[in-house]
Amino acid sequence: MPNRYRHWKQEQERRRLAALKGLGILETPREERFDVITRLLARDFDVPISMISLVDDKRVWFKSEVGLEGIEEVSREITFCSHAIEADHIMVVEDAMADQRFCDNPLVTGEMALRFYAGAVIRSSHREPLGAVCIIDHKPRQMTYRDRRQLIDFANHVSAQITLKQGRLRDSDD
Length: 174
Fold this sequence. Notes:
six-stranded antiparallel β-sheet; single chain; alpha+beta; 174 residues
């Protein structure tokens, strides 16, 4: 990787992490407004796992999840979400066993046996990628254009909810 590109990526990551930390949302209690979204995702897409994830520097923390009871975070090194935040809008892995990025991943080869992942990017008010709205299955799947659009709409709604709360916090400081 050329030095100039590496520097650009490092600066982009610094801005992204600053935006995430500036929200003050990490390590906060669960909120019904986000839990209802993960329940709708699981139901509407008929998947066993759905989540709203935020990608920190060393971990992916779940603001809300369905199907991962007792798990609040995962190391960033092994997550799909770490890759998803680099996508323009959505990342779909139809069969993780057939994807070179994930076929040796312990989330795929281990007890969880994940096969399908789709994640749409959650963005800050300044368009920095913060995390992803994700749906996950234990079997390979395909997504239609309509499914992809719907997942992006969910992510845009979560982005708006996060931005809305940030705006309220700023207003209360005035």
